[in-house]
Amino acid sequence: MSIAAFAVVAAAVCVASCMQASIGFGMGMLAAPVVALVEPTLLPATLIMSATLVTLIVVVRERASLDFRGTGWALAGRVPGTVAGTLLLVWIPESGLTLLLAAVVLGGTVVTLLGWNPAPVARNMAIAGAASGLLGTATSIGGPPMALVNSGREGAAVRGNMSAFFLVGSLMSLAALAIAGRMHSGTGTAFLALVPAVLLGYVASRWVNRLLDKDRLRTVSIVVSAAGAVLLLGHQVLLAT
């Protein structure tokens, strides 16, 4: 990877880490389309590693707001979802996964804009966990399902509980990817190189939380994610012509 390509990836990961630490999701929705365009070999493992680091920090920060029962139901659903996501990586070619990535991002933005907010009861948490596990393992974008069922909670609770879910879920996804042979030596090297970008993004989130309320920041994430997905679709169209 060239220096210019790495700079673009690091910038995307930094901004995505800031978003993840501010509203509880967004690492995959924002960074994955950029990484897929610049260096697709980093998906999904390196991005999941970066998400693991920032979610760990947020869980420690928001530990007083954790809801272990609700998160437990979501994690129970995450197990079959992670298995399904791993199978997608084996069965679907890279171009197909790229299109799936764009479709997931656009679908997530449309559903969010429609304002559908299911209650965070046990059944919905389990279903959202399964959907998040499938999408997160296959495309690094597992945020939208969990964001929907947590959207009505107070800010610290949203960040803490979603981060707790994504922390455990990301570790499960990494284990599944390792078993499937989808990780290599360059994965860890790229992650270590991106650690400063992740930490900088987290630090920036402390200021962002004071300047922007959750709704405004969420709107920004939707716009940026949709733009990234459209750009990704355009790239695939150019490759096909």
Automatic annotation (TrEMBL):
UniProtKB keywords: Cell membrane, Membrane, Transmembrane, Transmembrane helix, Transport
Its membrane topology: Multi-pass membrane protein
Keyword check for Transport: yes
Cell compartment(s), UniProt: Cell membrane
Pfam families referenced in this protein's UniProt entry, alphabetically: TauE
TM helices/strands, residue ranges: 42-60, 72-92, 98-116, 163-183, 189-208, 220-239
Superkingdom assignment: Bacteria
Keyword Transport: yes
Protein family according to the UniProt entry: Belongs to the 4-toluene sulfonate uptake permease (TSUP) (TC 2.A.102) family.
Name listed for the protein in its UniProt record: Probable membrane transporter protein
